[in-house]
Amino acid sequence: MSSSRGNNLDVAPVSQTVETHGEPPTISSLQDLTIVEAWDLDTNSSKYITFYLVTAEEVVYFGESTKNKKDMTLEEYSSALKLVPDSEIYPETPKDVQLTLAPESLAEDTAYFKRPGLTSYETLRDTGYVPKAVLDETLIMEQISKSPHANIVGYYGCRVRRCRITAIVLERLDQTLEQRASTSGVQDLDHDRLLAELESAVDHLHSLGLAHNDIKPENIMIRNGVPVLIDFGSCQPFGKPLQSLGTDGWCEEVFFTSERKHDLYSLAKLRDWLHTQNSKGDSGEMQ
Fold first, then answer.
1. CA-to-CA distance for 97 and 104, rounded, in angstroms?
2. Is 57 within 8 Å of 14 (Cβ atoms)?
3. What predicted TM-score, i.e. pTM, was given to this entire model?
4. Which of 82, 203, 214, 245 has its CA 20 to 30 A from that of 195?
5. What residue ranges carry the coiled-coil annotation (predicted)?
6. How far apart are CA 153 and CA 229, in angstroms?
7. In a 3-state reduction of DSSP, which class is residue 32?
8. Residue 28 is inside which H or E element, if any?
């Protein structure tokens, strides 16, 4: 049995010091990299590490090693990095869709740049999965943004480089409902209002013929006490096959198509989860 653990899995740091062409960039600090460990749960040890760097022009370099990340030198990280072809991770801009281009003035401290998830790139390369996921989510956000909802994350548009979509640019929010529960707790939130607003957001999606398919505390942000639904990587029209499925524990059964009932089940599960979190607070348990 294995799992991955590391930095945020969707957003890589953007190096401001490397060029976009030529030889792989030299790593001056581990802060230039996103590093992910594949962890063996049976032996409680690292199986291997993968790491990647995204330049200022959103050119991606990827590396892997069987060494423990603490035993790697900067030179070893640098020499292991290989250029990832744009076609492996970035979809071409569709010719039949007018995309919203995010303002170039937006910076990463004011907006959330969602880039291709590369935590499992070593198993997904040559499959077409990563660029398809980026394109699917971009098109869904384009559709939703034409009928915005206060409890759905704001969409600024996408970032395009070299005629390919390299990032989805979203409203920046700082804390998920899961993080809120594990730090300060959720007892001060109005649970009835929170659920009502989430149900309103989900009803809105359903009115557009879409199901989210992955509602859970990690995909709900809190903005001034108000819930905001995020992560539309599994959101598709009703009945459409999915390549990104739901999360264990938050779906009734394994599923492969987008359906309204998946969201209804998750919302009911969320109500129970909030009740449990509230009970923990009332009993004085540590969050």
1. 20
2. no
3. 0.85
4. 245
5. none
6. 6
7. helix
8. none
